[in-house]
């Protein structure tokens, strides 16, 4: 009986292997043009491109088949002895281990998912198509996990029995709530309010136009440095990632270090900004913020910081100003930012000529890139952690996610003007023009980063999946001024928001000042330091900030009067 069952199992496994190649080839071809703007509803954009030529290495396939059959045989043996061993946090609860059928389902899924992933290595195609295949497989396997389905999730079933169905009723309520709000809840959003328990550092809005509000923060020291400090956050998110709580606020930290601090708070675009361009954001926002900060403080030069896309915009603005013979910024900090888009990591799977042309046709002359679509796209870059984890906990188990300020911010999405978005896609991700002198025209100027000659501090996060560490490091090869590069541990947000008092993570520096061609070469000569990079940056910024003067007693100056208290009204507008 056992022998017959084992033979049936092996025949089924072999059939899976035989049909996998054909089905994968068809599926992989469908991912030729994935749409970065609406991963939540579709993964393809209209295109006239021919499907990719996909073949499989027979030798690698044979090896994978042998490995699969061996693993399948071992799994069957484990099943005969009881519940198979499953090492995955999605199936870690006792309910899975106590149910042999559920354990088998989980183990079989993991085996098949691993085989699908391993099969990517057997594909004979170009590197970009292989990356798209890998992304497609990740999305498929993440979505197909038995934990995502009530009929297969032993833990959710047990909870439903233990609560006499209350967890299912609560799960339905959670689902209806999330459908109404338009996104999956990652935290209990009812706990937070911008200006009440996030974005609470004291300050005032001292200028605003249709693109941004400029916030001046209250000095926290008796004396401040003579050169004020302006932060340019990404317009793809809200600025208060830099001011979540007093103990992890980079804005408050800068003020505590004696810097007279100003921050750009972007307006959340609506139909009135549907025709706004990259030039508008550079000229009428970043450059305007620089000049207003100078006017209010009477400073000849200021220090500036750009974070993520804010760094790309700041770099563009500095290049425009340099082309005009202006140098109002004394030093610049670039946090997880890209000026060179040769290495864009996983986001490269979305970008090709057909996709960019489609977006240009769709919204290049006007329209909005919806913030919820952008947010969902970035969530699907880590589907198990940022999508399916919450589907399971919220809907199948009826749980309310715990309060977490970072995830509240992550869900507080922003729109982008279509022309801005289309220009950004073509000139950075697709054609990488910013690093080619004279190739990009911004605000009527043919920009050249070689003219942006000032001290710069460049930070990259080692595990960043949005701005790969190599992409952040690449800026060192273009900016001609004195440069300091620092690498931090963790990812795009956790690596940046790492206050010294927490004593978490590490950062790396290279004290010989060498900036070789690649990040790997730089790391080979770098030294690890425990704790936050903030103190290193603070020491560097102090050296660029000039002498100390008496802190101002009031906000603004002259025509720049207080409009409203920080964090202002723009940041409170919902997409």
The whole-number mean of residue pLDDT values reads 90
The span between the termini is 62 Å
Major sheet, described briefly? 11 strands, mixed
Which strand order does the major sheet show?
17-16-15-14-9-8-6-7-4-3-19
What structural category characterises the helix and strand content?
alpha/beta
Bulk shape: globular
Contiguous low-pLDDT stretches (5 residues minimum) are 16-48
Secondary structure: elements and pairs:
Layout: H1 2-29, E1 55-56, H2 58-80, H3 94-97, H4 100-119, E2 123-124, H5 127-143, H6 154-162, H7 166-181, E3 203-208, E4 212-217, E5 223-225, E6 229-232, H8 250-256, E7 261-266, H9 278-297, E8 302-307, H10 309-323, E9 329-335, H11 353-363, E10 368-369, H12 371-379, H13 383-396, H14 405-411, E11 416-417, H15 418-430, E12 441-442, E13 445-446, E14 456-461, H16 469-473, E15 483-488, E16 506-509, H17 519-524, E17 527-530, H18 534-544, E18 548-550, E19 564-565
Parallel strand pairs: 6-7, 6-8, 8-9, 9-14, 14-15
Antiparallel strand pairs: 1-2, 3-4, 3-19, 4-7, 5-18, 10-11, 12-13, 15-16, 16-17
What does this structure look like?
Helix 9 packs across helix 10. This protein has an eleven-stranded mixed beta sheet, with helices on both faces. A two-stranded antiparallel sheet has the order 1-2. The longest helix has 28 residues. Helices cover 41% and strands 13% of the residues.
């Amino acid at each position: 009986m056992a022998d017959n069952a084992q033979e049936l199992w092996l025949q089924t496994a072999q059939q899976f292997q035989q049909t996998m190649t054909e089905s994968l080839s068809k599926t992989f071809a469908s991912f030729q043009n994935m749409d970065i703007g609406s991963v939540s509803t579709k993964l393809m954009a209209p295109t006239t491109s021919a499907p990719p030529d996909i073949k499989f290495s027979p030798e690698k396939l044979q090896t994978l088949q042998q490995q699969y059959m061996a693993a399948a045989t071992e799994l069957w043996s484990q099943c005969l002895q009881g519940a198979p061993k499953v090492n995955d946090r999605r199936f870690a609860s006792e309910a899975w281990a106590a149910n042999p059928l559920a354990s088998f389902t989980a183990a079989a899924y993991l085996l098949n998912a691993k085989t699908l992933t391993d099969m990517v290595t057997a594909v004979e195609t170009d590197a970009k198509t292989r990356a798209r295949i890998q992304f497609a497989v990740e999305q498929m396997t993440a979505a197909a996990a038995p934990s995502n389905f009530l009929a297969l999730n032993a833990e959710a079933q047990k909870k439903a029995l233990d609560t006499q169905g209350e967890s299912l009723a609560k799960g339905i309520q959670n689902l209806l709530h999330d459908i109404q709000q338009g996104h999956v809840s990652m935290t209990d959003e009812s706990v937070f309010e911008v200006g009440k328990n996030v974005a609470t550092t004291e300050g005032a809005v001292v200028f605003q136009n249709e693109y941004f509000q400029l916030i001046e923060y209250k000095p926290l020291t008796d004396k401040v440095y003579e050169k004020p400090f302006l932060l340019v956050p990404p317009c793809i998110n809200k600025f208060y990632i830099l001011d979540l709580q007093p103990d992890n606020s980079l804005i408050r930290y800068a003020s505590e270090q004696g810097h007279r601090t100003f921050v750009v708070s972007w307006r959340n675009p609506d139909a009135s900004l549907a025709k706004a361009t990259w030039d508008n954001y550079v000229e009428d926002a970043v450059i305007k913020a620089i000049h207003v900060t100078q006017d209010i403080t009477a400073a000849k030069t200021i220090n500036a910081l750009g974070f993520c896309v804010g760094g790309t915009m700041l770099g563009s603005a500095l290049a425009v100003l340099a082309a005009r013979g202006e140098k109002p910024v004394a030093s610049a900090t670039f946090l997880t930012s890209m000026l060179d888009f040769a290495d864009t990591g996983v986001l490269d799977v979305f970008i090709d000529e057909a996709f960019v042309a489609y977006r240009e046709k769709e919204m290049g002359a006007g329209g909005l890139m919806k913030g919820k679509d952008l947010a969902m796209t970035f969530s699907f870059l880590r589907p198990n952690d940022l999508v399916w984890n919450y589907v399971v906990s919220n809907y199948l188990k009826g749980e309310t996610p715990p309060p977490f300020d970072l995830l509240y911010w992550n869900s507080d999405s922003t729109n982008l003007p279509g022309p801005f978005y289309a220009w950004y896609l073509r000139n950075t991700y697709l054609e990488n023009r910013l690093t080619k002198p004279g190739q990009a025209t911004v605000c009527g100027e043919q920009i050249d980063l070689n003219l942006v000659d000032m001290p710069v501090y460049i930070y990259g996060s080692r595990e960043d999946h949005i701005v790969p560490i190599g992409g952040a490091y690449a800026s060192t090869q273009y900016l001609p001024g004195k440069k300091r590069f620092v690498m931090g541990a963790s990812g795009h947000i956790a690596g940046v928001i790492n206050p010294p008092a927490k004593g978490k993570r590490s950062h790396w520096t290279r004290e010989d000042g060498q900036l070789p061609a690649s990040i790997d070469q730089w790391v080979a000569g770098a030294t690890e330091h425990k704790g936050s990079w903030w103190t290193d940056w603070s020491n560097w910024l102090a050296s660029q900030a000039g002498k100390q003067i008496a802190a101002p007693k009031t906000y603004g100056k002259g025509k720049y009067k207080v409009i409203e208290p920080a964090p202002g009204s723009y940041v409170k507008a919902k997409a």
